[in-house]
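Subject: 1,4-beta-glucanase structure
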Amino acid sequence: MHASRLSRRAVLAGTAATAALTAVPLSAGHARAAEGAAPAATAYRWRNVVIGGTGFVTGVLFHPSVRGLAYARTDIGGAYRWDRRAARWVPLLDHLGWDDWNLLGVEAMAVDPAHPDRLYLALGTYAQPWAGNGAVLRSADRGATWQRTDLAVKLGANEDGRGAGERLLVDPRDSDTLWLGTRHDGLLKSTDRGATWAPATGFPPAPTATGQGVTLLVAAGRAVYAGWGDGGGTAPNLFRTLDGTTWSPVPGQPGGAFAKVPIRAAYDRHTRELYVTYADAPGPNGQTDGSVHKLATGTGTWTDVTPARPDGSADTFGYGGVAVDARRPGTVVVSTNNRWAAVDTLYRTTDGGRTWTSLKDRAVLDVSETPYLAWGEDRPKFGWWIQALAVDPYDSRHVVYGTGATLYGTRDLTHWAPEIRGLEETSVTQLVSPPTGPAHLLSGSRDIGVMYHERLTASPSRGMATNPVSGSATGLAQAARRPAYVVRAGWGDHGNGARSTDGGRTWTPFATQPAIAEDAPGPIAANADGSVLLWSFVHWDGTKHAAHRSEDDGTTWQEVPTFPKGATPVADPADPARFYAYDTGTGTLYASTDGGLTFTARASGLPAGDGQYELVAAPGRSGDLWLSTKENGLYRSTDGGAAFRGITSCRACHTLGFGKAADGAAYPALYQVGSVQPGLIAVYRSDDEARSWTRINDDAHQWGWTGETITGDPRVHGRVYLATNGRGIQYGEPV
């Protein structure tokens, strides 16, 4: 999913100034008002704004010996445990904080059949040089509490091959022994329940700098099998050990392009057969060929049981998930993956693979609980990127499968609906809380565009914003003095910008768009009365382009040469003639007093260069600007950007927003993700123009990366909406 890309966009922060400072970065030598003093804290209740899924569910695992106990993993949004009584998923990794953002991606998970309360997770989102190393968490209470071991290697839960696995396994002969397959560092082994790890001796393949390394680990009786994703052709890619020490290639294994990468495997203990799905690439993208084979482990006989072979031209795909029915010998379900022409499906056999039935062909999909899954069409599709797949060991007709956006389940093999309550994996980029109207929140996200939230506790009934349908949102803005007027921008197939005159319920595409908008949609702003639009353009590779302006609702557009390329336009909330922009390259504030026709430089010498910056305007006030910076804290201007002064109560600010003022206060409440004391990045509220801050999250509610955007509710004091990169929209209220 594109949503999985971690945003490194500059963010805003802030509050009111307390001491007049120069418009230059605060150095380490400057005294800070609250330095060394812990901020006050207040109790908040945190919940997800409900959308339902929206991200790639990469693994589902039923516990083999406990009815109703199941776990799910995602590529960037943590792991979950199924609460059978509440019929919802419980997040297990929300305690991971800012410094551990790379651990919100779950590479693999494992349970111990002999000890039902034990759970193991292998964490690490990216294996790139700029990302941190992976870690293994182990729990003796089903994920309620954890012990952690940091690894010396990197894992890649959001990289190619993330739907393969599982790569983590409790040894069938000894519950104290665990195996962990890595992408670039071979096979690791632990003999103390995951507390320490070392390279497994005797594992044949040599680690490589490229490729997929170990793709799967599965127990078959007392043997352990490992898939190897760097093989292909005639090279072996499936290995096994019978004694936990000696590894060797499995004899007679299939080869060729259709069996280049073993994706997943499942063992039927009744028939002593191992089923393996293969593809010509690790997926989820790029697979064009694949197969399904089974191995009779007693005799060593391989059989090709592929349900349908890709045709190499119009109908191309690989195979992904595989699950056996623990109650019915020879009953197996497999999934296709990356099948766009005929659409992915599940195949089910009850005779060991001799015959198969496509479950999609008679499927009835009910997405009324999560309407966005219709993707702007008349009916939802069965799904795509199907690699997570499981059959309930206590109910043969309860099958679940993950897609790039949800988790579907059935109880009768015909009627399917999302089984996704509690699991929220959206990567959120935009938040607007309107001052009036039925909806308290509008949101923009990667992959699922813009949504109108009539209720915070139910998925938006209108689904994704349509007309046009767009994927990742790049801009969302409301006219401050005309809140029914909203504009949005994002990646779409039929235009990349649209406007709404009913507060975001319905949309009309811009009649035209600048040519550059097709390849580089960026942030957009509407002036205070909605009479002028200003659209900035940034290509996905970071290339910046000239902004364009429209004063006829997007019917015509004109380039604005004096606007700093790639900057985010900010409209003055009170004066329709004023716009602002911050040039991060030079540390200069630019302003327009003619409705965005021309921009001139004002304050300079502000923080510049690589890093996070965001400019925001205080609601209802002209020229009241706040500049948040990751390295240098928070700045404020009350004269339209002619001069800024530093806010001494804030050490670092990643994102800043405003909400309804406290009773008796004359200034809006301020919310930020930032730091007001050494070593802690948290969520804060200020009711006194940033003279002091109150921490409003706690150590159990941190959600990794939260630096994208934050906003308070202009109608409810204390309510705040927080964007995360993988745990959806969190909203908090005082208790």
